[in-house]
Inverse folding.
DNA sequence: ACTTTTATAATTGTTGTACAATTCCGTTGC
DNA sequence: GCAACGGAATTGTACAACAATTATAAAAGT
C-alpha cells in the first residue's frame, strides 16, 4: 500500500480563509451562504469532489463501459486495490450506485451487477413513461422547447453513418435529459437519473445497438414537432411510441 | 463504550448448515437458490437485518417523529453514542436516508434535516402526480381495486373524531401505498417510497394536520369510485384534486 | 456415483482508532 | 463595527482487526 498522503483524493481543497477572501463575504454571514449554496447544488454538484463521489463516478464509468458481466460481483478487496481507497469508501460509493440502479447489494455476498430480465425492461419503460411523460406535459404547457434538445437533433442530423457511435449515444442522452431538465423539477431529474443509468447499462449489456443516424434524427424531429404543436395527448403518444420502440428492440435482443 | 459483543445487532443469524437442512436442498444447488431469493427480496426485505438497516430504520423513526427541527444537523458523535454503533455504520445508514429524501448531506458539514420550501411542496406534488398517476392508469386498465385500499377506507369510516390521529395517518398511507403496489412495478414502488417519506416528513414538520375522519373517508371513497368507473381521465382528475388539496393545505401552513 | 457432512478458506459486515482537512467559534486587532 | 488569526470541534478517510456469513473442497455415508 502506498504511504498515507499518496492515496488522498483531495486535490483542489480550497482553504477556508482563501474562500472567505474570494467571496468577499463577512465572517458572520458565511455559514448561511454555504448552507444555501450546498442545498442548491446538491444535485448540480459544483463543490470539490469527495473521495466517495470521485470513486462512484469512476466505478460508474467502468460499469457503463461494459467491463463487468451481468451477475458479476464487485469484490471489494480487488476494487479497493484498483482504486487505492479504503473499503469503507468503496462501500459508500457502491451503495450510491445501488441507489442509482447500477448495482444490487446482496447481504453477506456483496455488490453485484444487475441482470435485467424482460420484466425489468418493461418496468423501466413504464417508469420512463411516467417520468418523461410528466416532463412532456410541462413542455407542452409552457411551449418552451429546450435548446439542447434542438442541438442534439442537429448533431444526429449531421452525423454520418460512419461516425462514432458514442456521439449518437450522447446526443440521444442529451435530448432526453434536456426534456427532463426543462421540467424544472429537481425530483423529476433525480428519478430520471436512475432510469437513465439503468437504460444505459441495458444498452451496454445488450450490445449497444442504435438506429442509423438519419432515422434517429427523423424520429427525434418528429418528437420535437409533437411538442411544438402543443397538444399533450398527441405529444405523449409520439413519445410513447419512441419509448415502446426501444422496449421492443431491447426485448428482441434478449438472449 | 460497551464491550464488544453488547453492541452487536446480529441476533437471528441462521447458521448455514441448519438452513440447508430446513430447505432440504443439496449442496450443489444452494448457491443459486440464495442468489435468486435475495434478488427477489431485495425490495421486500425478508432477510435478517443488517446493522446499517436496523440503524437507518431507527433514525428514520426518530426523524419522522419530528424529533429534529428542519435545518438541524445530525452530529455523528452524538448519534453513534445514542445508538451505540460505529461512525461508519451511522454514515452508511445516514446515506441511505439521504437517498430516501429524509436527510441532506452537505460535504464537510454533515447530515442535515431538509427544510422544505414552497418549491419543494409543489415539486413533491407534481412528482406524486406522475408516479401515482401511472399507478392509477394501471388500476383503471386492469380494473382491480386493491383490497388494502378498501380496508383503509373502512378504517377511516369507522374512526371517531376522538380516535388516535396516527390511525388516520396510517390509513391514508396504506391507501396510497396499496394503489402504488397494485401497479406491480418495483421501480414505481421504490420511487414512491422516497416521496412517501418526504411527504410524511412534511406533514410532521407542518404540525401534522389532518382532515376530520368522516371527510377523509368520503374523499377516499370518491377516489375508489373514480377507479371503479374505469375512466382514466376522470380518475386521474379525481386523484389530482386530492393531491392538490394536500398541496394547498401544506402551502397555507407555510410559516 | 451421488448426496451429506465436515473442515477450511475467502469474503463481507462491523468496530475501533488515528489523522488530515475542513469548518466552527471566540479572540484579537484595526 | 469588520477583517484576520488560532484553537476547538467535526467531518472525511485510511488502516487494521475480528466476528459472522458464505464459498470451496475434501472426507464420509448411503
Amino acid at each position: 500500500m502506498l504511504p498515507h498522503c499518496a492515496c488522498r483524493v483531495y486535490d483542489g481543497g480550497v482553504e477556508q480563509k482563501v474562500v472567505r477572501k474570494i467571496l468577499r463575504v463577512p465572517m458572520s454571514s458565511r455559514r448561511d451562504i454555504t448552507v444555501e449554496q450546498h442545498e442548491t447544488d446538491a444535485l448540480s454538484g459544483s463543490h470539490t469532489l469527495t473521495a466517495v463521489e470521485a470513486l462512484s463516478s469512476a466505478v460508474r464509468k467502468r460499469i457503463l463501459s461494459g467491463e463487468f458481466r451481468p451477475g458479476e460481483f464487485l469484490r471489494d478487496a480487488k476494487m479497493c486495490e484498483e482504486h487505492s481507497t479504503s473499503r469503507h469508501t468503496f462501500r459508500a460509493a457502491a451503495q450510491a450506485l445501488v441507489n442509482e440502479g447500477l448495482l444490487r447489494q446482496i447481504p453477506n455476498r456483496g455488490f453485484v451487477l444487475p441482470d435485467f430480465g424482460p420484466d425489468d425492461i418493461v418496468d423501466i419503460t413504464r417508469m420512463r413513461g411516467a417520468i418523461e411523460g410528466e416532463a412532456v406535459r410541462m413542455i407542452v404547457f409552457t411551449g418552451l422547447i429546450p435548446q439542447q434538445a434542438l442541438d442534439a437533433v442537429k448533431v444526429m442530423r449531421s452525423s454520418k453513418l460512419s461516425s462514432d457511435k458514442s456521439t449518437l449515444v450522447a446526443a440521444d442522452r442529451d435530448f432526453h435529459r434536456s426534456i427532463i431538465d426543462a421540467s424544472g423539477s429537481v425530483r423529476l431529474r433525480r428519478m430520471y437519473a436512475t432510469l437513465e443509468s439503468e437504460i444505459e447499462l441495458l444498452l451496454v449489456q445488450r450490445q449497444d445497438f442504435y438506429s442509423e443516424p438519419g432515422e434517429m434524427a427523423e424520429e427525434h424531429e418528429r418528437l420535437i414537432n409533437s411538442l411544438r404543436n402543443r397538444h399533450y395527448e398527441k405529444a405523449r403518444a409520439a413519445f410513447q411510441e419512441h419509448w415502446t420502440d426501444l422496449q421492443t428492440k431491447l426485448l428482441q435482443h434478449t438472449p
Notes: Chain A has two domains: 4-37+48-112, 118-252. Chain A is about 70% helix and 5% strand. The first strand of chain A starts at residue 73 and ends at 74. Residues 4-5, 8, 10, 13, 15-16, 27, 31, 34, 73, 75-77, 87, 91, 107-110 of chain A lie near DNA strand C (CB under 10 Å from a C1').
